[in-house]
Design goal:
Layout (H helix, E strand, L loop, with lengths): L5 H10 L2 H8 L4 E4 L2 E4 L9 E4 L4 E4 L4 E3 L1 H9 L3 H15 L1
Antiparallel strand pairs: 1-2, 3-4, 4-5
Helix pairs in contact: 3-4
């Protein structure tokens, strides 16, 4: 089983903007509320979420979970870590 390097994982977590991943690729239900982009949390199904574009992370304030791109794919697609990384690597390759 191939291991992924720290650099590969860092790039995958940061190269694809999470807002675009959520809205355009995973097609998670989204809305803008009071000028803030919100998406449906894959854990608690609430819109009490926020994005920090500076670190490319998202947070659900209701269930208090943080997600990076890999976590979002795992939760949304119901797949494991390896499958999530492969999905994002293919996506990143298609974008370049």
């Amino acid at each position: 089983m191939k291991k992924f390097s720290s650099n590969e994982l860092f790039e995958l977590r940061n190269a694809i903007p999470v807002e675009s991943l959520i809205q355009n690729i995973l097609r998670v239900p989204c809305k803008t509320s009071e000028g803030i982009f919100r998406f449906l949390c894959p854990i608690c199904n609430e819109f009490q979420t926020g994005i920090n574009p500076n670190v490319n992370l998202v947070r659900c304030f209701r269930c208090e979970r943080n997600f990076n791109a890999i976590d979002l794919v795992m939760e949304n697609q119901g797949c494991g870590f390896r499958e999530s990384v492969v999905f994002l690597k293919q996506l990143l390759g298609d974008m370049q």
